């Protein structure tokens, strides 16, 4: 219920610059928190949230920020955000979408520490494919998340609730995680931006591991500029995370204007003609922006893609929850049990062979970043209805990772941007993949493609995207 002390209503978009402008004209963070909770209450039929910070507690945080002159100067002052429920928020339960797994987090995850210090306000914990294993958004005992544009269709996963919270205007940004595409595919399916940092750039301390050597904390936002602002806050070395890396300098993309695309024979859309046409339209927007388009052989990337679920990394994923799964097999989603069941058949010899082969594939793909500024791909080959996923949970989930599974294995960065709408009104996303530490340059290019599309992000009511300015980041 709305409190008696904060009756002013905020009914505007929740993009970062829009909120800053509102605060400059007298809107308070408490006004925004009231509006956020009202918006969440209005969409209770879609299981976006697993738990919420109580309204009075969030309002107390908002009022404390407003009383502090120092806080008002912080980079994300008063920005409400969502947290995927495999990321710890001190004092809140972490479930990883498994009620029997639940524990009360005693400390913030590293990314949450940084965001709170920057003035952002946690709204709550969002739904996900259980243990962040899935690209569909339906593998949760808390309910299947539904697409923002058509509830018959999947939201994408595993960071389903986080993407929906942004797309439906409930938060300014959200944190997800991404091992195989979980921070990119839901962004594409809900018409928002998904930024997947280079592995090791953002600490995963305080994150329930899925595949620990590959896991990334990802960012959902309405545009590339907002995503970069959040990345600037959460990125940085963390000595308490053994996978956090010191040696990650910002990298500029290759000189020139070349964008790489796969050979036509390597493109796969599973008969989704709309997605195929929208991808071709994205390529033409690149040309219209003065970029050269070159075809490349995607074979080494595809070989790496297959390794994620056919190689030893499935054993690493199983190891993350093996003690729990052994003790509580009934608590683990059936599709996840089947997926992880293959882990026991992988030998140490096969594991080392795969590690060595992956190192070769990394070397074989490095040349691309000297020729092209990025690899432009569909975020996903198609989208499915919830009932279709229920009928074929494994095969269709596997198809969705066709263009995304290789990115973390090869140590790359990626930014997904909206790429238009199918004839039935469902979103399509473009994925810009680049070398390690190229997030800012990818976002610059992504913002140009997003602006050229001239379609507001999310479900509607948001400002048209604008290209990032080279000097300022906006």
Q: Could you name the key traits of this structure?
A:
Amidase signature (AS) enzymes; disordered N terminus; 37% helix; 11-stranded mixed beta sheet; alpha/beta; 474 residues; 2 domains; two-stranded antiparallel ribbon
Entry summary:
By secondary structure, this protein is an alpha/beta fold. It has 18 helices and 13 strands. The protein folds into two domains: 16-234, Alpha-Beta Complex (Amidase signature (AS) enzymes); 258-453, Amidase signature (AS) enzymes.
Percentage of residues in helical conformation: 25-40%
Described by the principal axes of the CA atoms, the overall outline is globular
How far apart, in Å, are the first and last alpha carbons? Answer: 37 Å
Low-confidence stretches: 3-7
CATH class of the largest domain: Alpha Beta
Supply the helix-strand structural class.
Answer: alpha/beta
Return the CATH topology of the largest domain.
Answer: Amidase signature (AS) enzymes
CATH superfamily of the largest domain: Amidase signature (AS) domain
Strand content: 5-15%
Provide the domain count: 2
Strand order of the largest sheet: 1-5-2-6-8-7-12-13-11-9-10
Number of helices: 18
* Largest sheet properties: 11 strands, mixed
Q: How large is the radius of gyration?
A: 21 Å
Query: Which CATH architecture of the largest domain is right?
Result: Alpha-Beta Complex
Mean pLDDT: 95
Work out the number of β strands.
13
């Amino acid at each position: 219920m709305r409190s008696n002390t904060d009756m002013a209503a905020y009914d505007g978009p929740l993009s970062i610059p829009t909120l800053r402008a509102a605060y400059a004209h007298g809107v308070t963070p408490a006004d925004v928190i009231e509006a956020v909770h009202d918006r969440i209450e209005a969409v209770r039929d879609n299981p976006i949230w697993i738990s919420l910070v109580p309204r009075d507690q969030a309002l107390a945080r908002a009022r404390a920020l407003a009383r502090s002159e120092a806080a008002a100067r912080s980079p994300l002052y008063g920005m409400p955000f969502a947290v995927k429920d495999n990321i710890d928020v001190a004092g809140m339960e972490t479930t990883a979408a498994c009620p029997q797994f639940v524990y009360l987090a005693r400390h913030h995850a590293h990314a949450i520490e940084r965001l709170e210090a920057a003035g952002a306000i946690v709204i709550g914990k969002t739904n996900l494919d259980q243990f962040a294993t899935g690209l569909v958004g339906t593998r949760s005992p808390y309910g299947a998340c539904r697409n923002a544009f058509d509830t018959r269709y999947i939201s994408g996963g595993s960071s389903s609730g986080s993407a929906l919270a942004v797309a439906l205007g409930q938060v300014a940004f959200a944190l997800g995680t991404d091992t195989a595409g979980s921070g990119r595919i839901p962004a594409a399916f809900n018409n928002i931006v998904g930024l997947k940092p280079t592995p090791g750039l953002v600490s995963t301390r305080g994150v329930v591991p899925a595949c620990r050597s590959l896991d990334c904390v990802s960012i959902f936002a309405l545009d590339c500029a907002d995503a970069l602002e959040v990345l600037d806050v959460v990125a940085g070395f963390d000595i308490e995370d053994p996978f956090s890396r010191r040696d990650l300098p910002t990298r500029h993309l290759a000189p020139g204007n070349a964008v790489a695309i796969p050979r036509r024979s390597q493109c796969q859309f599973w008969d989704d003609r709309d997605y195929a046409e929208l991808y071709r339209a994205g390529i033409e927007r690149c040309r219209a922006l003065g970029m050269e388009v070159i075809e490349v052989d995607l074979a080494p990337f595809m070989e790496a893609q297959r390794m994620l679920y056919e190689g030893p990394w499935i054993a690493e994923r199983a190891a993350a929850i093996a003690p729990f799964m052994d003790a509580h097999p009934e608590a683990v989603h059936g599709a996840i049990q089947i997926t992880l069941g293959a882990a026991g058949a992988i030998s140490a010899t096969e594991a080392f062979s795969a590690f060595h082969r992956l190192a070769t594939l990394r070397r074989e793909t490095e040349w691309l970043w000297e020729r092209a500024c990025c690899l432009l791909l569909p975020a996903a080959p198609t989208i499915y209805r919830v009932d279709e996923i229920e009928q074929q949970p494994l095969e269709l989930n596997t198809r969705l990772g066709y263009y995304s599974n290789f990115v973390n294995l090869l140590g790359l960065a990626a930014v997904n941007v909206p790429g238009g709408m199918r004839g039935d009104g469902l979103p399509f996303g473009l994925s810009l993949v680049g070398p390690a530490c190229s997030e800012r340059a990818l976002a610059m290019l992504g913002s140009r493609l997003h602006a050229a599309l001239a379609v507001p992000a999310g479900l509607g009511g948001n400002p048209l995207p604008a290209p990032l300015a080279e000097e300022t980041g906006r």
